[in-house]
Amino acid sequence: MYDSSSSLKIPSSPQEEDKAEGKVYGNVFAELESVDLPLGTSLRSVYDDQPNAHKRFMEKLDARIRNHDREIEKMCNFHHQGFVDAITELLKVRADAEKLMGQVSDTNRRLQDAGREVTAQTEEVIRCRVQQRNMATTVEKLQLCIPVLEMYSKLKEQLESKRYYSALKTMEQLENIYIPRVSQYRFCQIMAETLPKLREEIKEISMSDLKDFLESIRKHSDKIGETAMRQAQQHRTFNSAVQKQVTLSCAKPLYGLNGRTPLHHNGLSTDTAEEEEIDEEVLTAQDLVDFSPVYRCLHIYTVLGDRETFENYYRKQRKKQARLVLQPQSNMHETVEGYRKYFNQIVGFFVVEDHILHATQGLVTRAFTDELWNMALSKIIAVLRTHSSYCNDPDLVLELKNLIVIFADTLQGYGFPVNRLFDLLFEVRDQYNETLLKKWALVFRDIFEQDNYSPIPVDTEEEYKAVVSRFPFHDAEIEKQQFPKKLPMSQSVPQIYSQVKEFIYASLKFSESLHRSSTEIDDMLRKSTNLLLTRTLSSCLQNLIKKPHIGLTELVQIIINTTHLEHACKYLEDFITNITNVSPETVHTTRLYGLSTFKDARHAAEGEIYTKLNQKIDEFIQLADYEWGMAESDGRASGYLMDLINFLRSTFQVFTHLPNNNNDHAAMSGKVAQTACMSACKHLATSLMQMLLDTELKQISMGAIQQFNLDVIQCELFASSEPVPGFQGDTLQLAFIDLRQLLDLFMVWDWSTYLADYGQPTSKYLRVNPSTALALLEKVNRGMKDTSKKNNIFSQFRKNDRDRQKLIETVVKQLRSLVNGMSQHS
């Protein structure tokens, strides 16, 4: 930039000063003439530099202006002629331009007239082209809208045809693909607003279908379970038949309930053949129930993102249905159909759950089904334990067991653990055995009531073989006898033996299909048979023996019967061994306790014989009518005593005629007869002694003592006549030794000997107790006093009476001292 301080410095000479000043102002004028530079700085340098600078500057400026005017004038003078020529030329051109303008206007007029039609046609063309463009745009937009409308129409059709899963897919395509392309249109907005409502509607409809499905499977559970259990039973029967066919050559036959083996043909039982005749069409849960609603509903809720809600609802409803299915009818225990329906419903429920578990992913889980099954299993066991306790029919309990086995096998085939059910079967087995015991108690009771308690008569060889085929009886002596002949036991023995075998058959039926070893089955049979023998049959025998109408003859026959049944126990053990094919030498084999049962029954019968004999003796004793104050005896035994002795003789003849064709029978009958005879004599002697010592009897005459002595003599004669063989010496007479010595003491009136020898082992009256002698002597003393009072008219006898009275008083004192000494010593 120009520096004003340096530029305005004036030189010392006038020429240099003028030259420099002109140069400075020339620069200022150049700056002023330049329109781009600011003027303020240049003008400030002019006025602020030196005094009078302004004036000189104005002078220089005027000079500069004049120079420019001269130059402009020179330039104008130089170009003026050309300007004049140009103006002249322009004037000439104006005339031509006006002429041309007229021509142009005319041409334009004519052109306008000619183009007006073209313009009209052009506008028509433009209008058509606008319409064409609009139509093309419309077609384009319609091509975008038509797929939307087609998809929406497809959606409506799918909803009407209840293809809800496809409808949801269509909605998804509408929302994500089609509607965004034409979202600016109102109908699309309406569609978009409608789709959520349609989804909710689909959810409600699918949920309604699910509820219908749940109701349907609840109704069809019975049929589903029946089909599944029938298939399981057919499969088990087929496997069992194949196994039997394979092992037919070495296996033992399993016996039926009534002692009959199932008929076989080509290794297959007739039961299997009947099963094979059943329709072979295999029905599954899908054949009986349409599962599409649950699949559809699951897919719908999955697509809608609400799968968890659906799963929770389904599981909750199925739990409720499970509780309903597990609730039995109150009278279920009355018929097998009640149990079958109960099992069918449960099986149907879990078959459906198993199908849902494998056909869907995650709707139900193994943990959920296991939880349901554990809950159901506890309830089932409790229900069966309760209702089975009400069953009194063994056939019903057996059918229940078969149902439980099929039920367990069916569910085990679907992967459910059933060990607890087989454990329950052991409880049911105990209940079954109890019902069998009750049933066989009635059977035994009927057999005992219908028995005539007499040996079995056989007239022909066929009759003998028929009896032997039912009961293992072998006796060489009886086989040698000619027909007709009699077997020692009564008709009830082979019947009891057959019924015990029937019981074993029935007990075996329960052990089938329990997946137990032969040893366990053998143990079960033996234990149940032991219960039958030791509890049921023993109780029936005890009750039979105690019945009042059973006489001595019947009791004797019962003793014989129990002996034969006792011998048959080993055959029952062999029978069980043949059934189970388990060797009796096995370490843990249970033995039958029939021996003790029949021994106890025999002992009870023997005791009852002794009791009844004593009761009969008491009845005869009650008929005694002694005249205790008689002066002299009748000279013969009392009538009641002779009747009693005749009864005893006839009774012991029954023992004498017991069948003793073998040593066992002879020993048994002889022992029972001897014991019964000895017991009767002892009881008779005791009763007679009690009659003499009765406290209500205050006095006895010597005539009554004589009469009583005659009766005792008859008793001794009966004992010495050997009413029952086998007694040694006077063993039986010793039963009356106490009476004999007591009566001899009074008949001989040998008190001095008694008192002198008392306490000596060789005493003649060793069996006479001082207290007994004292009691009887006091009664005789009172009797004598009473007789003396009646006969006091004979004075010569008074001294004798006084002497005897003194003797009696002396004896009484001595006897009392003996009694007192005995009491002090004791």
From TrEMBL:
Source taxon at top rank: Eukaryota
GO CC annotation terms, alphabetical? exocyst; plasma membrane
Database matches in InterPro entries: EXOC6/Sec15 (IPR007225), EXOC6/Sec15_C (IPR046361), EXOC6/Sec15_C_dom1 (IPR042045), EXOC6_Sec15_N (IPR048359), EXOC6PINT-1/Sec15/Tip20_C_dom2 (IPR042044)
Q: Where is this region: Disordered?
A: 1-21
Is Transport one of the keywords UniProt gives this record? yes
**UniProtKB keywords:** Exocytosis, Transport
**Residues of the Exocyst complex subunit EXOC6/Sec15 C-terminal domain:** 421-779
Cited Pfam families: EXOC6_Sec15_N (PF20651), Sec15_C (PF04091)
A biological process term (GO) from this entry: exocytosis
Give residue spans, biased composition: Low complexity: 1-13
Q: Give residue ranges for domain Exocyst complex component EXOC6/Sec15 N-terminal.
A: 60-229
Keyword Nucleus annotated: no
Which PANTHER family would you find in this protein's record?
Answer: EXOCYST COMPLEX COMPONENT 6, SEC15
Q: Which family does it belong to?
A: Belongs to the SEC15 family.
Function noted in UniProt = Component of the exocyst complex involved in the docking of exocytic vesicles with fusion sites on the plasma membrane.
The protein depicted here goes by the name Exocyst complex component
